[in-house]
Amino acid sequence: MAEEHVSPLHQFVIKPIVPLHVGHLDLSYTNSALFMTVTVVLVTLFIVLSTSGAGLVPTRWQSTAELVYEFVANMVRDNVGSQGRKYFPFIFSLFMFILFGNLIGMVPYTFTFTSHIVVTFAMALFIFVAVTAIAIARHGFHFFSYFAPKGVPWVMLLLLVPIEIVSYLIRPCTLAIRLFANMMAGHTMLIIFAGFVTALGILGVLPLVFNMGFILLEFLVAVLQAYVYTILTCIYLHDAIHLH
Amino acid sequence: MSEHGSPDDLKSLGERLDKARRDRMGAAPGDGKRQGALEGSALGLGFRVGLELVVAVVFGLGVGWAIDRWLGTKPWAMVVFLMLGIAAGMLSVYKAMTGMGSAIGYGGLDRPATDEDETKED
Predict the structure, then answer these.
(1) Span A225-234, pLDDT tens digits
(2) In chain A, where does DSSP find H-type helix?
(3) Per the CB < 8 Å rule, is A174 touching B52?
């Protein structure tokens, strides 16, 4: 109770670990970058170690890796179609990166890099640009004619085309905000209720019980949001490949 | 009591293998033209749609504000883009609810169902 006041948002502060300034750019290696590195290393270790010495009868680790692989492969097949197979490595990497990032963030004293909109938006922007480039590459400038519905008087087009363009441009924003908001809100809630535990004395059992349940929910959200992010990427890819 | 490797086991194994092979080689479910709404609970759909509505309005407001700052046309770009944002938000809600997904355009609306669709959607 006597401890200093720590903001619930304190956990999201980016701290430089290895300061590095190039010109006006701050390229420091931060705690966020550290946990991204940890994520990439863990994903790589998980996949490489569990599939090394792959047997016909899988070990526990191997079948876990195969389960994840099959899951993402089915997701790509069901949502992108057979032409989406060549994008599978990207989708799989994306899913594993977000999933491990979210789950590592659930470990106490770690940093959840997916709770920063900079990270999620950078990924969303890359996906948006890539998907648009794929659509233009596959359909040429015919792609732009899809912003104009057929059989509409040209006066209405002045109104409809900008609306259609805006609704296309908000895609990366919704993609980024969904993941970032879910992660940030969940982690903030956990800290706030943890604060109640010490503040309420004996009644602190109640928020403690709540937090125990909430942690389980957070694990669900961590997996679910990785899934949602990936499946929306698949759907955007599907739209780019099969333009309506 | 059934012994190991009885003909029934082999037959069902063969069927499962055939099915797996078909699933892998044949047309994928995602090859169809139209993609239904994102699966999930009604609550999930509600959150998705709500987020899209809010983001569209904020996006319109932000773009309008930026253009106003850039061109000094205060407040006209903001007014126009706010309205566009609201319209775009409603459009994406409408598309999500009618199962058109997030596709560009109105292809799912004005196109009458053709034979090609029927064969693909079964």
Answers:
(1) 999 999 989 9
(2) 31-51, 60-79, 88-104, 117-139, 154-199, 205-241
(3) yes
Domain ranges of chain A: 10-242
Among residues A136, A100, A113, A119, the alpha carbon closest in space to that of A187 is found at A113
**Nearest residue to A241 (alpha-carbon basis) of A124, A85, A90:** A85
- Per DSSP, helices labelled H in chain B are 7-25, 42-71, 76-97, 107-110, 115-121
The per-residue pLDDT for B29 is 62
Comparing CA positions, the residue from B108, B121, B101 lying closest to residue B39 is: B101
Residues of A in contact with B87 (CB under 8 A): 159, 163, 166
**Cβ contacts of A48 within 8 Å, gap of 6 or more:** none
Longest dimension (CA), chain A: 70
Angle at the Cα of A33 (from A30 to A37), degrees rounded to 5? 140
Tokens 């363009």 locate to A165
| Separation in Å, CA of A134 to nearest CA in chain B | 14
- Residue B11: pLDDT over 90: no
d(CA A62, CA A55): 8
Prior bond of A162 cis (ω within 30°): no
What pTM value is reported for the model?
0.81
* Torsion angle (degrees, nearest 10) of CA B90, B96, B102, B103: -90
Look at residue B111 in the predicted model and tell me its pLDDT. Answer: 40
Q: Which amino acid is at A231?
A: I
Q: What is the ipTM of this complex?
A: 0.73
What pLDDT band is residue B32 in, cutting at 50, 70 and 90? low
Mutate one of B104, B116, B120 to test the A interface: name it (highest A CB count within 10 A): B104
Q: Is the pLDDT score of A21 beyond 70?
A: yes
Single-letter amino acid code for the residue at A93 = S
Q: Say if CB A180 and CB A116 are below 8 A apart.
A: yes
Residue B25 to residue A141: CA distance in whole angstroms: 32
Amino acid at A56: L
DSSP class of B1: -
